[in-house]
Amino acid sequence: MVPAPASQSIHEAVSFELSIKAKDSIKTALAMTIAYAIALLMDWDRPYWAAFAVAFVSLTTVGQSVNKAALRMSGTLLAMAVSLIIISLTAQNRWLFIVLLSLFTSLCAYKMGGQRASYFWQVSGFVTAIICFDSGPDPTDAFNTAIMRGQETGMGILVYTLVALFLWPNSSRAAFFESTATLTKCQTEAFLNCVELAQGRSTTSGSAELEAAELQAQNNFAQLLLAAEADTSEVIEQKAGWRQFQVQSTALTAALQHWRDSLSEISHQQLMDAFPNLESFNGEISERLKAIGDMQAQRPPSRQPAQVTLPADLQVVEALSHYDRAGLAVARAHMRDVEKLTRDLFTTAARLWGFSDQNVEFGATTTQVQFALPDRDRLIATARFAVMQWTAFLAVIYIGDLPGGFGFVTMVTALGIAVVQMPGFKVRTLSAPTAYAIAFSGIVYLLVMPQLSSYLQLAPVIFAATFAICYLNHAPQQMLGRALGLALFSVICAISNDQSYSFISVATTAMMFSTLFVLLAVANYFPFSMRPEDVFLRMLKRFFRSAQIILAAVSEEPRGTATPPAQWLYAFHVREVATLPQKMAAWAAHLNPENISANNPQQIQTLTAKLQLLSIRLNQLTKLQADTGAAAQLHLQADLQDWREQMNTTLAEFALPNTPEPDNSGSAAPTSEPGRQLRAKLAGTEGDILNSSEAQEVYQLLGAHRGVAEALNAYGELAQQINWQALREPRFA
Questions:
Q1: CB environment 29-51: b (16+ within 10 A), e (fewer)
Q2: Chain segment 540-554, per-residue pLDDT in tens
Q3: Which uninterrupted H or E stretch holds 314?
Q4: I want to staple 202 with a disulfide (CB 3.0 to 4.6 A). Which of 54, 196, 430, 651 is the partner?
Q5: What is the DSSP code string of 179-226?
Q6: How high is the mean pLDDT of the chain?
Q7: Taking Cα atoms as reference points, which of 63, 69, 254 lies closest to residue 176?
């Protein structure tokens, strides 16, 4: 082997040293060093507040950092205003003080559980607590404390932003456009899977993986779009267009999933016989998706979308039972949705990538105003947070010399508001990183810093320590350890112009975190048990109870004639059914392996996928029930009454997975198949499916009922294979 030249070896060494991991660590360390220098030069109190801002807004790309910085700064500004209001109203009443503070921070904890601006609410909550408790016994110092927090946070954000812009700027542009291509590729694969299902050349065995890939691609695109809107000129200039692309692609993903689900309930031969031009339809949609991918690769589309319809062979359709006609009607409706959405998505993509001559403004995306519906799981998390905060506050008042004093309450607020929203959070995941961070920071603080006499000597220490913490905790799953490491380094070292050193401060911090971890461990069982197994089973009960209420409401009077409280309660259960399967999937990933040793872990994930399918079916049924005319509903009312009673009984049985069963299944399967009963009952009826809009409504509504029955049966078959007793067995973990 010929040895590499010396220059090449040096180049390779430099390339290795300056990996993305090293570059990100260098940028954070440099910004931290500069932020400390400015704060000390300005003789500001608590310079570590500027360091906090640098530590928590430093992310992989400039766009992500700018977005997080904006949320942190706006959250800090809100906290400044709220804290000053609370202090001004409660300067002489500590109980009213903690009540108002707890109410606001609990509101922040609840809002943080949502999908929008969660970091904004997290910052607002814990910064309010910091300002309130840091003001000390003298409320006149509150204004200065609030202003100091705001200006140091702003300075830290500004410093890191400038460093990130001028030193190895890493735009999210490439990652964003790559996520766009990945999303289109996933949707193309999902469509081809639907085509294979329609032609009978495939089964649904791989559909779960496809749906997971689609969801991951959609979520990744949404996250990177936020970053690209801050640092990518093409996205900034056409923000409305990209928002429209996001809405349309999300709708297409859902439509493909619905179409895929409907294909599992009908014969592929019936589908191909009923729609003679199905091959032409599939070919046109495939060409549209290919053209969208070509435009993303800067290749012009070969042609514009062609008009395609799905005329039915009436002779074939009329020979089928009403039950099979319903399945065809539902599948046809989903295929039409796919056709419309791919056409709209093609038009949007052509304008975004400059392959359209139309000079028309993008339409603004609108959101429908709905009832203010509480989220039960976010309420539970908020209650746990409030209990922890009140426990800490009462402990500081009634237990003498509690480590940290009111700083303990601040730390409980800052850490508790984040961990209560984490599925399957375990205290031991924080104990080791915290111990390492305290030991490392204590060594620097007690052994290294006393030997330094100027900032020129201190700066390399700050840079090296920050670099080491960031470099060793660079992986996404290590972000919490990285944040704790940087925060503890800043707090323990307590860098200031009037520097002092005390072993007691390090020991106090260690004892405070030990006490905090005990409180977090207790909060995992009180006031609600947060063992993943317990949470999973509770959510399962809630899902089927809400499904039972929804199904019972389908046979009652139309929603528009119900009282406002009844409408609100109905909407609450609809959202429960829509959101619980995804939550259960998140918790299923944290189930104790010993508790599911009797089960195949893949079975639990498949079970949540079956629940997701049932959720989609119920959602379709509720929408059709709201949109279908009274005449069509009346036509099916008597025919479906027995079926609904049977389904209600089945849902009630599934809602009690803790009921002991002789076969130890823990969940009763239906004694008979409602779908099969419905098929037999309607097999001999006659009617026209396509010539009447009222008949179309009848068959779509019938198909929605059929879909619920089939999805519930699929769940029941899998539920009988689960060893529920293993999940119910109490363990301390």
A1: bbbbbbbbbbbbeeebebbbbbb
A2: 989 988 888 887 776
A3: helix 314-318
A4: 196
A5: HHHHHHHHHHHHHHHHHHHHTTS--GGGHHHHHHHHHHHHHHHHHHHH
A6: 80
A7: 63
For residue 384, give the 3-state DSSP assignment: helix
N-term to C-term CA, the chain: 55
CA dist., res. 387 & res. 375, Å (int): 18
Q: Residue 708 maps to which CATH number?
A: 1.20.58
Answer yes or no: is pLDDT of 287 > 80: yes
Helices vs strands, H then E, count in the chain: 28, 0
**Type of residue at 624:** L
Give the Cα separation of 342 and 334 in Å (integer). 12
Radius of gyration of the chain measured on its C-alpha atoms: 30
Asked if 511 and 638 sit in the same domain, the reply is: no
**Angle at alpha carbon of residue 386, lines to 383 and 389, rounded to 5°:** 150
Q: In the chain, what's the furthest Cα-to-Cα distance?
A: 95
Residue 345 CB neighbours (<10 A): 23
Contact yes or no for 542/576 (Cβ under 8 A):
yes
Whether the Cβ atoms of residue 524 and residue 422 lie closer than 8 Å to each other: no
Residue 159 structural domain: 15-170+374-523
Same domain, 589 and 491: no
Tokens of 558: 């139309």
The answer to which of 20-29, 212-221, 291-300, 723-732 has the lowest mean pLDDT is 723-732
Q: d(Cα 300, Cα 291) in Å, to the nearest integer?
A: 8
Per DSSP, 448 falls in state I
pLDDT in tens, 13-40: 444 446 888 888 999 999 999 999 999 9
CA distances from 246 to 221, 240, 341 (A): 8, 10, 12
Q: What token pair was written down for 396?
A: 């500081």
**What's the pLDDT score for residue 202?**
67
- Give me the DSSP letters along 130-173: HHHHHTTT-GGGHHHHHHHHHHHHHHHHHHHHHHHHHSS---SH
To which H or E segment does residue 246 belong?
A: helix 239-263
pTM as predicted: 0.80
Q: What is the dihedral of CA 181, 183, 188, 193, to 10 degrees?
A: 150
Which tokens sit at 684?
Answer: 């001999």
Last residue in a domain, options 494, 523, 552: 523
Which residues fall within 8 angstroms of residue 195, CB to CB, at 6 or more apart? 282, 286
Residue found under tokens 């995941």: 429
- Cα–chain-centroid distance for residue 179? 17
661 Rama sector, left if φ>0, alpha if ψ -120 to 50, beta otherwise: beta
The string of pLDDT tens digits covering residues 241-272 is 899 999 999 899 888 887 887 776 677 788 88
In a shared domain, residues 499 and 630: no
Domain boundary among 318, 352, 386: 352
Measured at the CA of 248, the angle between CA 243 and CA 251, to 5 degrees, comes to: 130
Residues 324 and 259 in one domain: yes
In a domain, 83, yes or no: yes
Q: What is the mean pLDDT of residues 507-532?
A: 89
- Does 288 share its domain with 211? yes
Helix (H, G, I), strand (E, B) or coil at 386: helix
- Return d(Cα 323, Cα 265) in angstroms, integer: 10
Q: Is residue 548 included in any domain, yes or no?
A: yes
| Euclidean distance between CA atoms 132 and 126, whole angstroms | 10
Q: In whole angstroms, how far apart are CA 257 and each of 11, 189, 208, 413, 616?
A: 49, 12, 10, 41, 9
Q: How many CA atoms lie within 13 A of 527 on its CB side?
A: 12
Residues 338, 464, single domain; the answer is no
Q: Are residues 463 and 549 in the same domain?
A: no
